Structure formats: C-alpha cells, structure tokens
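Teaching assistant's notes for section 4

Start the section by putting this record on the projector. Ask students to predict, before seeing the second block, whether ATP-dependent DNA helicase will look compact or extended. Collect guesses on the board.
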Amino acid sequence: MAHKKSFEALDRTQQDLRGNSELMGGALVILFGDFRQTLPVIPKSTPADEINGFLKQSFLE
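Reveal the predicted structure now:
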C-alpha cells in the first residue's frame, strides 16, 4: 500500500500536466484492493503514523 502523499502528489502532477484542476486532472484512475485491510508500510513508525498515512485519511477519498 502506498502512502497517501504519493497519491496526493500524483493528483497534483496530473492536474499540472493536463491543465485541469479537477481530481486527477480529469483523468480516470483505477485503483483496486481492499484499502480497509491494507495499511501503508512505514519503516520505524508508530501505529499512529500508519493511520495518518492511510489513503482514507486523505482529501482524495
């Protein structure tokens, strides 16, 4: 599972490249998996760090 900041960076990059301020620059992005059961892997982190890095805690959700 990727950190939420990775997806947020992808969103900003897509918006810049496409010149569109919509979510992901208006492009269709398909993600699959059970995001409720998979937490991001953050080396040497606390459980709170893992929860904060979770995609459902992002504005993209």
